[in-house]
Amino acid sequence: MAAPEQLTQAFRKANVILSARTVRDMLAIWPMFHGDVESFNGWVRAAGLVIERDRKVATGLAIAYLKAHRAASGITGTAPIVTADPIPPTQVVASLAATTFPHVRRAATVEQGLRTAFVTSSGAASRLAINGGRDTIVATIKADRHSVGWFRTTSGNPCAFCAMIASRGAVYKSEATAEFRPHDHCHCEPEPVYEGQSTLPKGPAAGWARLDQENATGHGKELLNSFRRAYESA
Fold first, then answer.
1. In a 3-state reduction of DSSP, which class is residue 186?
2. How many CB atoms lie within 10 A of CB 14?
3. Which 3 state secondary structure label does DSSP give 101?
4. In this structure, are residues 125 and 58 in contact, taking their beta carbons and an 8 Å threshold?
5. What is the distance between the alpha carbons of residues 222 and 227, in angstroms, rounded to a whole number?
6. d(Cα 84, Cα 133) in Å, to the nearest integer?
7. Would you call 171 helix, strand, or coil by DSSP?
8. How far, in Å, CA of 1 to CA of 170, rounded?
9. pTM of the predicted model, to two decimals?
10. I want to staple 129 with a disulfide (CB 3.0 to 4.6 A). Which of 38, 54, 101, 146 is the partner?
11. Domain ranges within the chain, ordered by starting residue
12. Which residues pair with 193 in a beta bridge?
């Protein structure tokens, strides 16, 4: 049986591949959008189908991962799987409108705006799709009496925000802030942590925790900026 950490890395890699498929298919339908409201309405319907399709795949990957990870962690018995809800069409429209129209309107030309808008909107689309799995994991952790929370697992070279969150170790499900916060183009995933397991940061995150303790000061954006400076110069 694979170790929990191996299962987590395999799961994260599967989602990276799925995210790439979402972006690829968003590129295929991108010529439908010309920067105006009328073409947006047709394009966003097609984009919604891509997102919902891959959201279902992400949810399925998460269900298989949760079951395998729980067994590999030595937790006996079964736990309820709480699957993510379908994404509301209004959320798709709002997210894609916010990541397209502002760029088209601010750019010197429509063509320049559309190039930027594709990058931002495809990032939003992949986040909405992969969140099907992330939401399933977090909701299931909250419903599992043997789980205490989750770790943020990252790529080998995450952004400063993701590294800082990962450096904190386990996020406890009882905390008011215990929601997974991915950004667009994010490849982080939540990894369950169970009773009796260490909740301290592990792997590269342990090193980031030392950076945080030694260099990060202030609150909010000031805290993130001070961590970013230390992280980028390390």
1. coil
2. 18
3. helix
4. no
5. 9
6. 7
7. strand
8. 24
9. 0.92
10. 54
11. 4-233
12. 149
